[in-house]
């Protein structure tokens, strides 16, 4: 056979031409014939622009960006250069300078589109070229060899064109062949081990090698997608798999409860619209990018409407940036980002006042509305399916006068409507799962069984109408099957909606508008909550919600904090008392000073943590996913075996005819395919986790991680901090010795800059005792030494205040006398001179003793590890019934961590409870870290659990009961799922012969398997303490 490839040697065979032609040239011609209809696209002007930018060293590779701004990733012929981790990037991905040689004889010459288009491919393989072909190299001043020029030009052009414009499939890896001499590579020697090469999956629009996805691109960004159409737990798995087929996409979390997916991707390797499009194409779920900018740190977003952009545009100050604009008929909407640490929100709004700027409510993804829409859609489908299904069942089972043709025709029409309208989403999901994702799941099994039943009944009815019937049609089987499957989806969707209602409850606790009090206290203005600034004075009327965290300035009242802390009794609020966002003011109007703006307050923090908990996975969920992944293939194999067995039984044992034996086997097979359901297995863990988190909030306990729910019940050792944890944290000065009164102003300036309980107590004592004195101005910032104290330099003199051991004052006689009284000591020095001693006392929490007794009754060993003086710690331990050997004082943060790790080394499961910044390392090191709600932000961020309730004993009891109850319910649901599927398959397969599940009732399987799981999970709401 002669080679008929254009440009190929007409006098040689195809095999000879292949052996003598560079591999990339052969493959490019193969692509030419395969994609001949797309040649105008390949030879378009943008393609030449790409190649021109590549060849003339513009710094932009053909893999970076095309003329439409779309990302394209490098792809190479699998027969030529194969990307490996140990090799450098290929020359198609690296810009070549003008003077660099690409081929030994084909470099440095600018090529026009016309010359490139007219070039032909010659037959001389690159490896067999004679060095004589370079004797006319342009750098030597001689004429260039047109043969080498055209071959390199055409081959390189086709490689670049395919790289940027052609979608093609990944082929199996072939041996590495070199087509460019200066390409960096590692030679394979005989006997050397071949290293495996990773190939990525086919990507819509482009392919990206694994090493490009891992190393290339720009910054890593977060992205949130709304996913509409996840009707069962297995849909989340398909969405996750679809996302992971894209380059650089990682850290994928799919939340079936809110209908959202979060992920991280690398900028430049993939684009958000392509990500959403990929999920929609592979799963059928409608996916869209949630339009929320990625804000970090103190960055906030304001949506401002301006009337027009005519006139002079205002200049934006430092910390303000315009992210985007959108135009309507009468106005323009600006998305303005600002840094709250630099500029205040009302100042940002004032910038746009000359343009008629006004604030718009921020856009937020309304997942609740999306879920309600999906539930209504499922309800409509279920209702219509039930209405159409009832007549079919009546014709099949009711004692009517015989008229099979009439009844069969009506049943055929109704069953067809159900297949088209109700079954359409199932057929679409099954097609995408099987042919796009190559996954065999329950959608495929349901569609397969319903289609078989429908087609069989259709053929049976047609033959019966023709007078040659071989079996009675059973249209009621596919009709009732799809109706019950849809009903099961509806129940599952509603259960997930109810499980996530806690998020809506939390959001409803945040008012949209607040009453801002002027600095004079005479004027009250209503403003949006996003414009509230720290230290604003806000008025809270009686019987209204507190808009944000703050401190009472004027007025007295009582607050209902049951929604957040579980405290049923009203809490008195007087001037100086803290108030929490989302609590209700009961009695009278009060004015509060804002300490945390709404974007950072308790409600915002709780909402973010609950949303994150819903995305968390328990380790046992991985086992459920693995089992569910093998579930459908195993059921398919079982169904085939059941079909064969019943055919043999019908023919050999019962002596039935072929038709009757085949119909019987078919009905058993359909029942087996449909009756089994892995959804209960996939749903049992996340359902219990979400409801447990919601119940915990009601009890004043906030789980930040799902693993904390599982680990809390295994605690064997509890380690407590002292101040603010086992004590109230409200220190009072019992004894004070000021050795230099001229240093009082300096001491007051030092302690006023700290929020530590000891510093606050000293500052309050000095202000109350010496009201005529004020703090001296400081020229530098006070430095806080974690676990030690404070220090600042004033007029060249170092001022330090803190623990006497840190100040090396252990030998002071006065200190020894005060230490014997079990007081918390605070000393101040100027340079090396002691100027003051303060002895402070704290009282235990009212529920501290009950909490210790609770732990000891459960066999949990209790320790106290504190930075306070050892005598003070031992005195508290004695009062609370803790052995003195388990009470250790004088511990800086590193010693606390060492104590926790020493206990863990003995095999103990350690729970650490603290509230301060100095407790953060120990909270992170413990198996489960618990932070008090009134503690520092750093401590709460490091903990696994946050206790919001003031009653420590009640909160710890709720923690252990919820952990134990949740784990038990997960195991119970797993057991039910296993037992159900085992016996359901046995019943459907006819193992018990006389007791079986008919195929028309097999659709009840999903409902029967899921409803107990839902009820068991919902029983967490009724868990008593």
Write the layout of secondary structure elements.
Layout: H1 14-20, H2 23-34, H3 39-42, H4 45-55, H5 113-118, H6 146-165, H7 210-215, E1 220-228, H8 233-244, E2 250-255, E3 260-266, H9 272-283, E4 286-289, E5 299-306, E6 320-327, E7 332-339, H10 345-351, E8 358-360, H11 367-397, H12 404-422, H13 424-436, H14 442-465, H15 476-499, H16 501-508, E9 513-517, E10 524-528, E11 537-540, E12 544-545, E13 550-554, E14 557-560, H17 562-565, E15 571-573, E16 578-579, E17 584-585, E18 590-594, H18 602-615, H19 619-653, H20 658-675, H21 679-698, E19 701-703, H22 706-711, E20 717-720, H23 722-726, E21 732-738, H24 744-751, H25 757-769, E22 783-785, E23 789-794, E24 797-802, H26 813-819, E25 824-830, E26 833-841, H27 848-857, E27 861-865, H28 870-880, E28 887-888, H29 893-905, E29 910-914, H30 920-925, E30 928-932, H31 937-942, E31 945-947, H32 952-989, H33 1004-1018
Parallel strand pairs: 20-27, 20-29, 27-28, 29-30, 30-31
Antiparallel strand pairs: 1-3, 1-4, 2-3, 5-7, 5-8, 6-7, 9-10, 9-11, 11-18, 12-17, 13-16, 13-18, 14-15, 14-17, 19-31, 21-26, 22-23, 23-24, 24-25, 25-26
Helix pairs in contact: 2-6, 8-9, 11-12, 11-15, 12-14, 12-15, 13-14, 14-15, 14-20, 15-33, 16-18, 19-20, 19-21, 20-32, 21-32, 21-33, 24-25, 27-32, 32-33
Uncertain regions spanning at least 5 consecutive residues? 1-216
% residues in beta strands: 15-25%
Number of distinct helices: 33
Question: What's the overall geometry?
Answer: elongated
Helix content: 40-55%
Number of strands: 31
């Amino acid at each position: 056979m002669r080679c008929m490839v254009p440009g190929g040697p007409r006098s040689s065979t195809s095999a000879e031409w292949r052996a003598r032609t560079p591999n990339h040239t052969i493959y490019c011609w193969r692509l030419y014939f395969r994609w001949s209809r797309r040649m105008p696209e390949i030879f378009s002007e943008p393609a030449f622009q790409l190649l021109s930018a590549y060849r003339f060293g513009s710094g932009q590779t053909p893999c970076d960006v095309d003329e439409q701004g779309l990302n394209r990733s490098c792809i190479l012929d699998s027969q030529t250069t194969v990307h490996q981790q140990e090799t450098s990037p290929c020359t198609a991905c690296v810009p070549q300078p003008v003077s660099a040689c690409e081929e030994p004889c084909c470099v440095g010459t600018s090529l026009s589109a016309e010359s490139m288009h007219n070039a032909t491919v010659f037959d001389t393989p690159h490896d067999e070229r004679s060095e004589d072909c370079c004797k006319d190299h342009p750098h030597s001043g001689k004429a260039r060899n047109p043969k080498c020029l055209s071959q390199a030009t055409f081959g390189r052009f086709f490689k670049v064109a395919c790289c940027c414009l052609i979608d093609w499939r990944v082929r199996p890896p072939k041996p590495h062949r070199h087509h460019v001499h200066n390409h960096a590579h590692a030679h394979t020697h005989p006997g050397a081990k071949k290293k495996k090469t990773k190939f990525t999956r086919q990507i819509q629009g482009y392919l990206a090698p694994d090493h490009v996805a891992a190393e290339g691109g720009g910054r890593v960004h977060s992205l949130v997608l709304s996913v509409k159409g996840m009707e069962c737990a297995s849909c989340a798995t398909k969405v996750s798999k679809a996302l992971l087929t894209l380059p650089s996409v990682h850290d994928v979390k799919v939340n079936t409860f809110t209908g959202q997916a979060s992920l991280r991707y690398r900028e430049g390797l993939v684009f958000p619209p392509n990500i959403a499009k990929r999920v929609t194409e592979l799963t059928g779920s409608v996916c869209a990018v949630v339009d929320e900018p990625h804000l970090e740190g103190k960055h906030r977003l304001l949506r401002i409407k301006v009337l027009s952009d005519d006139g002079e545009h205002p200049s934006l100050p430092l910390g303000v940036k315009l992210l985007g604009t959108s135009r309507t008929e009468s106005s323009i909407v600006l998305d303005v980002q600002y840094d709250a640490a630099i500029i205040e929100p009302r100042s940002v709004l004032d910038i746009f006042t000359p343009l008629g700027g006004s604030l718009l409510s921020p856009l937020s993804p309304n997942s609740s509305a999306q879920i309600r829409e999906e539930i209504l859609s499922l309800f409509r489908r279920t209702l219509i399916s039930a209405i159409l299904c009832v007549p079919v069942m009546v014709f099949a089972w009711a004692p009517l006068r015989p008229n099979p043709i009439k009844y069969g025709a009506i049943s055929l029409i109704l069953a067809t409507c159900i297949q088209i309208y109700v079954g359409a989403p199932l057929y679409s999901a099954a097609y995408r799962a099987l042919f796009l994702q190559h996954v065999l799941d329950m959608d495929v099994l349901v569609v397969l069984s319903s289609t078989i039943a429908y087609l069989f009944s259709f053929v049976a009815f047609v033959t019966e109408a023709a007078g040659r019937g071989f079996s009675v049609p059973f249209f009621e089987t596919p009709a009732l099957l799809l109706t019950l499957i849809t009903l099961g989806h509806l129940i599952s969707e509603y259960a997930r909606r109810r499980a996530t209602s806690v998020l809506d409850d939390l959001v409803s606790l945040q008012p949209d508008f607040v009453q801002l009090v002027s600095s004079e206290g005479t004027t009250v203005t209503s403003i949006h909550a996003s414009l509230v600034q720290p230290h604003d004075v806000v008025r809270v009327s009686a019987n209204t919600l507190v808009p944000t965290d703050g401190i009472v300035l004027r007025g007295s009242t009582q607050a209902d904090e049951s929604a957040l802390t579980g405290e049923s009794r009203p809490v008195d609020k007087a001037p100086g008392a803290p108030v929490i966002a989302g609590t209700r003011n009961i009695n009278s109007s009060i004015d509060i000073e804002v300490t945390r703006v709404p974007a950072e307050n308790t409600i915002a923090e709780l909402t973010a943590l609950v949303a994150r908990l819903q995305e968390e996975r328990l380790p046992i969920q991985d086992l459920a996913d693995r089992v569910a992944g093998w579930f459908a293939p195993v059921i398919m194999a079982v169904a085939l075996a059941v079909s064969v067995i019943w055919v043999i039984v019908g023919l050999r044992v019962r002596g039935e005819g072929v038709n009757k034996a085949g119909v019987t086997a078919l009905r058993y097979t359909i029942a087996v395919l449909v009756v089994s359901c892995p959804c209960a297995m996939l749903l049992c863990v996340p359902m219990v986790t979400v409801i447990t988190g919601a119940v915990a909030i009601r009890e004043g306990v906030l789980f930040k991680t799902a693993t904390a729910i599982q680990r809390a019940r295994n605690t064997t050792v509890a380690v407590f901090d002292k101040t603010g944890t086992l004590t109230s944290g409200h220190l009072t000065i019992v004894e004070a010795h000021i050795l230099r009164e001229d240093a009082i102003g300096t001491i007051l300036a030092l302690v006023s800059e700290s929020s530590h309980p000891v510093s606050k107590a000293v500052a309050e004592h000095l202000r109350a005792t010496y009201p005529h004195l004020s703090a001296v101005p400081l020229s530098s910032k006070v430095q806080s030494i974690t676990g030690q104290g404070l220090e600042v330099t004033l007029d060249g003199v170092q001022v330090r205040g803190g623990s006497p051991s840190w100040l090396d004052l252990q030998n002071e006689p006065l200190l020894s006398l005060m230490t014997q009284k079990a007081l918390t000591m605070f000393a101040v020095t100027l340079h090396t001179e002691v100027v003051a001693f303060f002895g402070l006392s704290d009282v235990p929490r009212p529920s501290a003793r009950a909490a210790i007794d609770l732990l000891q009754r459960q066999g949990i060993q209790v320790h106290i590890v504190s930075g306070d003086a050892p005598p003070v710690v031992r005195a508290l331990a004695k009062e609370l019934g803790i052995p003195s050997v388990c009470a250790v004082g004088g511990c800086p943060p590193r010693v606390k961590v060492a104590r926790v790790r020493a206990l863990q080394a003995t095999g103990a499961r350690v729970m650490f409870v603290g509230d301060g910044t100095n407790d953060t390392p120990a909270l992170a090191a413990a198996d489960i870290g618990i932070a008090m709600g009134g503690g520092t932000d750093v401590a709460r961020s490091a903990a696994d659990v946050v206790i919001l309730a003031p009653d420590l004993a009640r909160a710890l009891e709720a923690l252990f009961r919820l952990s134990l109850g949740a784990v038990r319910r997960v195991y119970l649901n797993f057991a039910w799922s296993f037992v159900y599927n085992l016996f359901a398959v046995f019943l459907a397969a006819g193992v018990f012969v006389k007791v079986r599940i008919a195929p028309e009732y097999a659709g009840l399987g999903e409902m029967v398997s899921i409803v107990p799981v839902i009820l068991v999970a919902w029983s967490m709401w009724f868990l008593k303490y």
